[in-house]
Design brief:
With about 110 residues, the chain is mostly helical. Helices cover about 55% and strands about 0% of the residues. Helix 1 (about 20-40) runs antiparallel to helix 2 (about 50-85). The radius of gyration is 26 Å and the shape is elongated. Keywords: Electron transport, Membrane, Mitochondrion, Mitochondrion inner membrane, Respiratory chain, Transmembrane, Transmembrane helix, Transport.
């Protein structure tokens, strides 16, 4: 599958109720309600099966988009950590940490 490669199966699945699935599920339900309103049907009572279908489709698309986003973030993290592991000279640990007072200049009022 091009959308999610097989290596994404090693990642834990996102929660069923996440931000993307809830928002797109709500958007699907609202699109069914708007369709009823534009066609001059009772908004909430007509086409309940269509409302459930659109909300389910929106939830599924949102869930898959969150899965893809998590895979892409994990891929970038893996590449960055691999780069850091191969180039340790560029990412040496600081010997001593400077305090904020050492970084800022002394305050001298102008007037």
């Amino acid at each position: 599958m091009v959308f999610l490669p097989d290596e994404s199966r090693s990642l834990p699945p996102p929660p069923l109720l996440n931000k993307g699935s809830v928002w797109l599920g709500f958007a699907g339900w609202m699109s069914a309600l708007l369709n009823n309103a534009f066609n001059q049907r009772p908004v909430l009572r007509a086409g309940v099966h269509r409302q459930i279908l659109f909300a389910t489709l929106g939830w599924f698309v949102g869930y898959q988009l969150v899965k893809r986003a998590e895979y892409m973030h994990a891929k970038v993290d893996r590449e960055l950590f691999e780069y850091i592991r191969h180039h340790p000279v560029d990412f040496h640990a600081a010997a001593e940490k400077k305090r904020i007072g050492q970084l800022l200049e002394d305050f001298r009022p102008i007037r």
